[in-house]
Recover the amino acids of this structure.
């Protein structure tokens, strides 16, 4: 029950070459520029490591797992507990192994999702600091959410239907304590409404013009205060203007141009951990 | 010695004594022992009432009186012959009987004296009235006998320990017998000449004495939060409140509104003890075993004023956690556990606190070594923290848990999928397994209702939606549905409202149950506790070890026998209710079938006539008595016929006329009242815009009119406690089409019992939004809330909708269903809608809607006519017949209704009046015209009530029969908190007690309530 956004460690995974060709895609058919994607990822990791001072565990890529760079889907960490998921896409199931090992190494209490009827992608899990919202998507089902609820008993777990996007966090994320960044599409707004209805808490919302821009990474780090990693002006100029209104935040634009082509978002590329959570 | 023992004793005595009696007389004969020799009346009485109901004093007289019934007495030799004589004997015997009974069961305590005096008074009274000559001498004798016998009996009591009772009675009996024998002989001779009537009257007179005498005490066992047991004696008919206050006093708890007492019902389900209702009626046959627990979990415990309150909350939460009711993660278990240790043990002490020092504590449902180690580790880190600080920290962490303060109920959705309904401070949560699948914040909910085993909530339309939707859930049974409904009503009121709804008003709003949360709201309790001015009370923190251990201690119920002075007539009267009701409630289930199914579709009004005729001819002893039996249940049967059709045809003039006559009636009532307010009546009369409106509605609309009419109907609540009669069917009779509500005269049978505990078939509760004040809690306004004002019109229809619920079919599952059948309530209200109120605030809206205007039945002296008109039923259609999990949009109906909303805008009337007429069966002899004799006039002031009773007695002689009519006028004035039904029930009970041999044939209730002043 530590302060929301407090992290000490991050788990990331390198970009496999297979990402360009074999990664799962939902919409975009744009060709992914592998070198640029790799560079993009390196920048991302360096922000975490150098800029923010997190201890970063970098897992090697696995060519057999084209989507392995998106470690977020493999585990949900909250407090001292890590729930190792059962990703909705069968081809990604093996991604969890390496992530589990890494999290185990960090001393987290590991909970595994062994139920074969359950699926859950970490990208569908929004933790607000007070409760969980789990997107019911093509990748995540109710059973997966139930197991999540069982793993994190302190928190309410509410279901939010996700339509038109891969994950719940494809159009929203936390931009601060009790602050939800949300896209402006109907789908996003509808999901937000549901979340508001389901919650006993009242969240502020930060509405950005572009749904994809609503995926950002909030941290609250000692000595740095509120930190927000968000999209770059090149990608979503209008949305960046919205982020820039957050005067108290340390704003760090991080490019995600390439990975977005394979449905990758900022949050997808890391699992954040707070080791002193208790 | 406990009460129960007393009753048991009686029972025990029976067998022993009965044999004795048999030698002498027919054991079966209760009231009228044939032989003078039969000196021991008790056995007889007990025979009559073998049941435990002995404790039920009010009943006993009735039963006894009924026993003589020709049909009942078994033909045993000689009995018949003697009957003539025996008839005359009974009174005396009875009197003694009553004394001996009372005394036997009572311990010789100081209380007794006042009682005896009373008895004497009462006894003497009746005698004078009936037959002066013969009776007077007798009376004297009896009294003598009484006094003589008394001391003996007292001794008896003393001598008699519970085990020895039989012996004791045996000893005393001889003495008694002798005396009685003497008196009896004399009496016989004199009495022979007397008429039966006299006897009866005397009997009736006597009975009250007996009734009043016993004040049974019961020991209640309350499991406190620290696991200890608190035992407390309460009067058997005490209300929940009494016990609760005792417990709070014991705990030195001031901020008590967050807490409550619960008990396990027969199905092992936890039920909250309603403070305003008698305990006995609520627990029914369960043990007098309760648990003191937190009922409303304060969302922010830091706002509690006193540490002791926080401490108790901690204890509750520890229980919740250890039992698994409040799920926590490992870390949280450890953290909370460590705070518990700190609070109870203080700083970690390596010397004292060995490894296993905590193994006795239960921190989690499944406690592991690992957890204990973690707890210890954390405990060490709390060094220096005071117990109060540790508690505060505990609460700060516990309150964040998602299931904190969530009261879960098993249910199924429309598809039969298992879900959980979680009632909490902010609203209703729906869970499937551990997932929250929906949530309905209080502001979103327009109405909460239940019908049979279904529980419904009506949802305020969202931005995009046009209509309200209703969501239904299926609960395991009727009781469960009612339970969740009650919990919702209470939580909504406590957390959402600034002050509880006015109970009086709420009555009109509901159908079926008038249950409302009557305690303080959170806002009120916070305010109150901010005024607490006392040094922090000292209290001992008990080790949590005890919690786990003592919880399952087997509670033993000890009953003690206490003799108590009868307080005021009022209390006594009220008390008597208990037993009678009990009977009803017990017998409920079978009755359900009796209920006839109302046809909702039927356009025509079908009237069910309950052919229950109770005659009360003073003279006819036997037959009448029988009828009395029925009355026992405190039910008054009202005949009802269908005048609906007539009403339909009424013109506005008729209506006005009707009203005028009503007002006249009311006026006459008012004269008797200390504070007549004729002006208001007048206002009402002239200003009855409502009437006009209704008329319009009637004439024009068919189905739609319900909107107007409906609300009225809606308010009608009939609680039928009466088991036997058909009456319940009546409500159904209402023709759906009859918009005529206005004129209807409702005839119904209504159980006088004030006990709303009985199970209502269904009930609903309209969420009242805090009008002026939005509850403190609701700081975070839900987006929906903004719309409230605009939505009001929409909301209105919903009200209407509720009615459909009317007891269409007897609850299949709920045995209790019969108890409260929503039938047309007799209330006639002249109440106008406040609806029009400019302040369109939603909060205000609901009440106005319900404002119903019913025409008071004209009860001008003429006994017979009351017609029931229940329009409301029509609406039923709108209610989803099937439980729906998903939002159900009811379009047409609502839309139609909405258009009519305008009608509701009626000028405000300041006074609310209500006249209820209950008619028992018919008396042919209408003594009405005859000038009565003013017998008594007394005023009793207690608490907030002022009761004035005026009694007129009229005697007429017809043929060989003399008929005595007693008319009592009781005026009760007090603040709005009066439970009118209860007062009524009480009054009736008292009347019955005083004249057990007479039957209540008519009850006219006239009620005037001042509405909020602002409306003036």
């Amino acid at each position: 029950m530590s302060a929301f956004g407090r992290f000490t460690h991050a788990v990331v995974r390198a970009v496999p070459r297979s990402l360009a060709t074999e990664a799962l895609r939902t919409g975009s058919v744009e060709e992914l520029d592998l070198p640029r994607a790799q560079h993009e990822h390196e920048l991302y990791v360096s922000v975490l490591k150098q800029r923010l001072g997190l201890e970063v565990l970098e897992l090697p890529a696995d060519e057999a797992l084209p989507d392995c760079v998106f470690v977020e889907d493999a585990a949900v960490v909250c407090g001292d507990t890590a729930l190792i998921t059962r990703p909705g896409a069968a081809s990604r199931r093996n991604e969890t192994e390496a992530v589990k090992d890494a999290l185990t190494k960090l001393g987290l209490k590991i909970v595994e999702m062994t139920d074969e009827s359950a699926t859950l992608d970490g990208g569908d899990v929004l933790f607000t600091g007070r409760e969980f919202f789990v997107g019911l998507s093509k990748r995540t089902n109710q059973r997966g959410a139930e197991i999540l609820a069982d793993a994190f008993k302190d928190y309410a777990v509410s279901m939010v239907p996700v339509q038109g996007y891969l994950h719940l966090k494809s159009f929203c994320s936390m931009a601060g304590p009790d602050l939800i960044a949300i896209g402006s599409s109907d789908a996003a707004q509808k999901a937000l409404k549901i979340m508001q209805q389901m919650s006993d808490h009242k969240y502020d919302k930060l509405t950005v013009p572009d749904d994809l821009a609503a995926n950002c990474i909030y941290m609250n780090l000692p000595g740095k205060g509120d930190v927000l990693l968000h999209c770059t002006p090149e990608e979503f100029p209008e949305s960046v203007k919205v982020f820039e209104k957050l005067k108290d935040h340390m704003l760090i634009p991080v490019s995600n141009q390439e990975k977005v082509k394979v449905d990758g978002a900022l949050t997808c590329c890391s699992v954040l951990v707070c080791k002193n959570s208790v | 010695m406990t009460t129960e023992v007393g009753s048991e004793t009686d029972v025990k005595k029976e067998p022993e004594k009965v044999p004795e009696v048999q030698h002498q007389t027919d054991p079966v004969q209760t009231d009228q022992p044939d032989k003078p020799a039969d000196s021991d009346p008790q056995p007889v009485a007990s025979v009559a009432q073998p049941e435990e109901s002995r404790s039920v004093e009010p009943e006993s007289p009735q039963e006894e009186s009924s026993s003589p019934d020709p049909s009942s007495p078994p033909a045993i030799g000689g009995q018949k012959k003697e009957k003539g004589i025996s008839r005359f004997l009974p009174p005396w015997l009875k009197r003694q009987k009553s004394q001996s009974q009372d005394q036997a069961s009572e311990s010789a305590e100081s209380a007794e004296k006042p009682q005896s005096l009373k008895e004497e008074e009462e006894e003497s009274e009746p005698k004078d009235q009936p037959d002066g000559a013969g009776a007077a001498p007798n009376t004297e004798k009896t009294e003598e006998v009484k006094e003589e016998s008394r001391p003996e009996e007292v001794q008896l009591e003393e001598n008699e320990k519970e085990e020895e009772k039989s012996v004791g009675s045996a000893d005393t009996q001889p003495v008694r017998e002798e005396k009685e024998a003497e008196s009896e002989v004399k009496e016989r001779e004199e009495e022979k000449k007397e008429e039966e009537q006299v006897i009866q009257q005397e009997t009736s007179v006597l009975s009250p004495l007996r009734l009043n005498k016993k004040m049974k005490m019961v020991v209640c066992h309350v499991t406190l939060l620290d696991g200890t047991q608190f035992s407390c004696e309460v009067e058997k008919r005490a209300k929940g409140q009494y016990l609760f206050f005792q417990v709070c006093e014991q705990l030195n708890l001031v901020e008590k509104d967050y807490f409550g007492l619960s008990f396990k019902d027969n199905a092992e389900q936890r039920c909250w003890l309603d403070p305003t209702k008698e305990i006995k009626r609520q627990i029914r046959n369960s043990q007098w075993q309760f648990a003191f627990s937190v009922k409303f979990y304060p969302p922010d415990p830091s706002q509690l004023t006193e540490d002791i309150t926080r401490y108790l909350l901690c204890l509750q939460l520890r229980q919740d956690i250890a039992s698994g009711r409040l799920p926590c993660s490992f870390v949280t278990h450890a953290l909370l556990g460590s705070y518990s240790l700190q609070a109870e043990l203080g700083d970690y002490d390596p010397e004292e606190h060995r490894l296993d020092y905590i193994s006795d504590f239960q921190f989690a449902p499944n406690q592991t070594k690992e957890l204990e180690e973690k707890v210890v580790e954390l405990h060490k880190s709390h060094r220096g923290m005071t117990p109060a600080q540790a508690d505060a920290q505990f609460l700060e962490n516990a309150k964040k848990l998602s299931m904190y303060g969530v009261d879960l109920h098993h249910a199924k959705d429309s598809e039969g999928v298992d879900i959980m309904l979680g009632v909490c401070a902010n609203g209703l949560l729906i869970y499937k397994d551990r997932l929250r699948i929906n949530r309905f914040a209080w502001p979103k909910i327009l109405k909460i209702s239940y019908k049979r085993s279904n529980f419904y909530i009506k949802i305020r339309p969202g931005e995009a939606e046009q209509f309200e939707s209703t969501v239904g859930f299926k609960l395991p049974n009727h009781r469960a549905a009612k339970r969740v409904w009650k919990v919702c009503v209470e939580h909504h009121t406590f957390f959402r409202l600034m002050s509880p709804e006015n109970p009086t008003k709420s009555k009109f709003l509901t159908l079926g149950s008038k249950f409302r949360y009557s305690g303080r709201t959170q806002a009120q309790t916070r305010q109150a506790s901010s005024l607490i001015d006392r040094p922090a009370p000292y209290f001992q923190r008990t080790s949590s070890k005890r919690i786990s251990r003592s919880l399952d201690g087997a509670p033993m119920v000890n009953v003690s026998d206490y003799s108590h002075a009868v307080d005021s007539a009022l209390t006594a009267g009220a008390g008597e209710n208990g037993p009678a009701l009990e009977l009803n409630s017990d017998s409920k289930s079978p009755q359900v079938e009796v209920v006839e199914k109302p046809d909702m579709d039927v356009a025509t009004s079908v009237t069910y006539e309950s052919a229950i005729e109770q005659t009360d001819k003073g003279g006819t002893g036997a037959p009448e008595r029988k009828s009395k039996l029925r009355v026992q249940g405190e039910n008054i049967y009202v005949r009802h016929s269908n005048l609906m059709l007539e009403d339909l045809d009424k013109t506005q003039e008729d209506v006005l006329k009707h009203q005028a006559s009503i007002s006249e009636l009311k006026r006459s009532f008012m004269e008797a009242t200390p504070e007549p307010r004729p002006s208001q009546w007048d206002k009402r009369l002239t200003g009855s815009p409502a009437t006009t409106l209704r008329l319009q509605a009637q004439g024009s609309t068919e189905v739609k009119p319900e909107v107007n009419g409906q609300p009225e109907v809606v308010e009608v609540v009939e609680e039928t406690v009466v088991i036997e009669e058909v009456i319940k069917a009546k409500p159904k009779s209402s023709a759906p089409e009859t918009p005529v509500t206005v004129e209807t005269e409702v005839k119904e049978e209504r159980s006088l019992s004030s006990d709303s505990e009985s199970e209502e078939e269904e009930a609903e509760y309209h969420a009242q939004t805090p009008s002026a004040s939005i509850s403190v809690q609701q700081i975070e306004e839900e987006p929906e809330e903004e719309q409230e004002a605009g939505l009001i019109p929409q909301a209105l229809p919903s009200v209407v909708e509720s009615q459909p619920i009317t007891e269409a079919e007897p609850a299949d599952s709920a045995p209790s269903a019969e108890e409260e059948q929503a039938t047309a309530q007799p209330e006639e209200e002249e109440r106008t809608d406040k609806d029009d109120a400019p302040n369109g605030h939603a909060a205000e809206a609901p009440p106005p809607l319900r404002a119903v205007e019913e025409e008071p039945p004209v009860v001008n002296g003429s006994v017979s006519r009351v017609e029931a008109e229940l329009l409301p039923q029509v609406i039923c259609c709108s209610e989803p017949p099937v439980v729906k999990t998903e939002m159900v949009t009811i379009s047409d109906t609502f839309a139609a209704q909405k258009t009519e909303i305008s009608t509701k805008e009626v000028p405000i009337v300041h006074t609310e009046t209500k006249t209820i007429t209950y008619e028992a069966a018919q008396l042919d002899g209408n003594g009405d015209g005859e000038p009565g004799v003013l017998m008594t006039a007394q005023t009793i002031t207690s608490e907030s009530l002022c009761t004035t009773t005026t009694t007129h007695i009229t005697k007429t002689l017809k043929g060989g029969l003399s008929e005595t009519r007693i008319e009592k006028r009781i005026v009760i004035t007090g603040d709005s908190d009066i439970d009118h039904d209860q007062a009524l029930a009480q009054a009736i009970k008292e009347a019955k007690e005083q004249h057990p041999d007479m039957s209540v044939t008519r009850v006219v209730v006239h009620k005037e309530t001042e509405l909020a002043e602002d409306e003036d």
About this structure: Helices of chain A lie at 18-22, 34-51, 95-105, 142-151, 186-198, 237-243.
